[in-house]
Amino acid sequence: MREIPLTSPLIPNIKEYNEYLINIFESGDFTNNGPCVKELENELKKYMGVLNNPLFCNGTTALMIALKSLNLKGPVITTPFTFPATVNAISWAGLRLIFCDIDYETMNITPEDSLECIKNSEVTISAILPVHTFGTPCDVQGFQELAYDYGLKIIYDAAHAFNVKINDTHIGNFGDISMFSFHATKLFHTGEGGMLTYNDSELDIPIKQLRNFGIKDEKEGSIIPGINGKMTEMQAALGLCILGKIDEEIKKRKKVFELYKSFLSGIPWIKFLKIEKNVQNSYQYFPIRIKIFRNKIYEHLKNNGIQSRKYFYPLCSDFEHFKHLDSIVPNAVKVAEEILCLPFHGDLAENDIERICEIIIEEGKQ
Ligand SMILES: *Cc1c(COP(=O)(O)O)cnc(C)c1O
After folding, report:
1. pLDDT digits over 31-82, tens only?
2. 268 CA → ligand 1 middle, Å
3. Which atom of ligand 1 has the smallest separation from the CA of 131?
4. Angle at 201 between CA 200 and CA 203, to 5 degrees
5. Where are the alpha helices (DSSP H) in the chain?
6. How far is the CA of 1 from the centre of ligand 1 (A)?
7. Residue having the nearest C-alpha atom to atom 6 of ligand 1
8. How far apart are the C-alpha atoms of 262 and 361, rounded to whole Å?
9. What is the spatial distance between Cα 194 and Cα 190, in angstroms, rounded to a whole number?
10. Using one digit for the tens of pLDDT, what is the confidence trace for 196-249?
11. Is residue 1 over pLDDT 80?
């Protein structure tokens, strides 16, 4: 039986990668903001139309640095329906967190529910860390107004939203800072890697110092307790080779997306992700919600060699280290019981998609 993986990373042309490697080996520039990192940063700046976009060793470290750079003191409101990286980064930055419930439709936290959390909190909230879950943009306008009214910072986890735009504006242009992950499971990747985007250029100095041990210069040395968040040349070279393949991969994923929808349409107990007309699909995951048979279908797919994922179950609010927060998040509980991400990448064959859908439909009938 042939296994079908959940995802399959884009693999660059080895000859092209080799060209970069030869340059790296000849120059001995392996890291410390070398030519490949600079070139990738420039290419991504153009791709997203953002002002500042430093690169990092991974998305989680980038997020920790983003939180540190804003000098936050009070708790941070965030979502329980996310990858552990989002919420653990808040803890690593030395901040308390408050879980806010999500909207059942978008699976994102909202400004309205965040406002409730602000009102119910005895201490002053310093920031909100919403996730553009599965590439669905949060209510960026609403969060901006809330931030203005309550003097809050907004840091978006945009790990799923590499190519997402609202109208013609790239998602990396909203909030104070956005974080992108370039992990190999993401649409665009550098093996491991990450990026922050922000339009306030004043953040550039603290963010880059925090990325480099907090070092200001040779004379003064380290002036803030920074860490090492630098991207290597080998990572950046991988990204440069992969960036040229993104458009074609998106085209292929679009086809996979449409095939799934056609095979599964009209099944009353399956709910698709809703993508608004003015939003560009992220083509990062293919999440569906299955009202009653989710676990049964997950097992049956697994027994047939098909890898699916209950992203994001268990909820972060149920992690041992966050249980004491006694979070009340009924929508998130419901979504986590229904969610299933199906195999999704450009090279998924039509007959494989058909087989996956048949298994789901059959199992649901029983
Ligand atoms: C992938 C991911 C991250 C973590 O990024 P890394 O680059 O693997 O550190 C953070 N948040 C979300 C929602 C993710 O999916």
Report:
1. 999 999 999 999 999 999 999 999 999 999 999 999 999 999 999 999 999 9
2. 32
3. 13
4. 80
5. 14-27, 35-48, 59-69, 84-92, 111-120, 140-150, 204-211, 233-243, 246-264, 294-303, 330-338, 350-365
6. 31
7. 59
8. 13
9. 8
10. 999 999 999 999 999 999 999 999 999 999 999 999 999 999 999 999 999 999
11. no
Contacts from 274-280 at CB under 8 Å and sequence distance 24+? 274/105, 274/106, 274/136, 275/136, 278/166, 278/167, 279/136, 279/137, 279/164, 279/165, 279/166, 280/163, 280/164, 280/165
For ligand 1, which residues put their CB under 6 angstroms from it? Answer: 58-60, 82-83, 85-86, 131, 157, 159-160, 181, 183, 194
Per-residue tokens: 79: 């979502």
Contacts of 114 (CB under 8 A, 6+ apart): 77, 100, 128, 130, 143, 146
183 in Cβ contact with 59 (< 8 Å): yes
Distance CA 36, CA 344 (A): 29
Kind of pairing between the strands at 339-342 and 286-290: antiparallel
- Ligand 1, closest atom to CA 192? 7
Q: Are 308 and 342 in contact (CB under 8 A)?
A: yes
Q: Which atom of ligand 1 is nearest to the CA of 61?
A: 9
Strands across the sheet with 127-129, in order?
55-56, 194-197, 177-181, 153-157, 127-129, 76-78, 97-99
CB 9 within 8 A of CB 184: yes
